[in-house]
Amino acid sequence: MKPIRKAIFPVAGLGTRFLPATKAMPKEMLTVVDRPLIQHVVDEAREAGIEHMIFVTGRNKGVIEDHFDKQYELEATLKERNKTTELELLAADTPAAGMTSFTRQQQPLGLGHAVWCARDIVGNEPFAVVLPDVLVLNEPGCLKQMVEAYSKQKDKANIIAVEEVPMDRVHMYGIVGVGKEAGPSMPITRMVEKPKREDAPSNLSITGRYILQPEIFDILENQQTGAGGEIQLTDAMITLSKSQPFYAVKFEGRSYDCGSKLGFLTANVAYALNRKDIAGELRAELQQLLG
User: Fold this and answer.
1) What is the pLDDT of residues 136-145, one digit of tens each?
2) Is the pTM of this model over 0.85?
């Protein structure tokens, strides 16, 4: 099978749940500790061996493109002030020439449509989709675990990251039914978008990470709108599953839904506590706040 070299990052959303913070700044640039959300997921993709980052953007998202570009004035100032550590940090985070591409999703027509917008850049090869709203704290990262599971498949396969959620919350997610576990992955027998509790095939939710075959683009091109009047990626995957196998990877680590205020704040605490340079002082501050 072809290796996974490209990843799509859908970043065209309006971020209305974080207004007014996102009135003039993309939600993907909100920071968890000292790194923007989008940088965290790009780091995860690079760890997994992704060579080409494809950002599907919308209006007022130019700062994301700027973030992954060189800033000569800033670098010159840091050099003059002998800020070697900061210069090395910027250099490590800046993708090499040709490693990033940007395309527009002119209308907010859903995740499936955003993925379809990147079809010509991806071409005829398997690819990953990484949602910046979802952070997964673990080493190795979630996508690397998925790539390793993908490499063990003998035929064309599609991989979805899943995790358990309480049954009273299954109506909030895409849910999969699975067969018997085989190594790090489980064959998916059913996919349902936001089912009622009584209709859910399990409590395993789709968690913002996908490895998909390029045939999904032909399906998305003619995909009818689904839940919320949007073109749903899950609906297209259900169609593709009739001709290609799908597997679920129950990844190691904890996910944080940074599309919600509580998830975003929790992620900040969790990632900070995972940092040796600030964990001790933060833990003391939290203990004092909690009494």
Assistant:
1) 999 999 999 9
2) yes
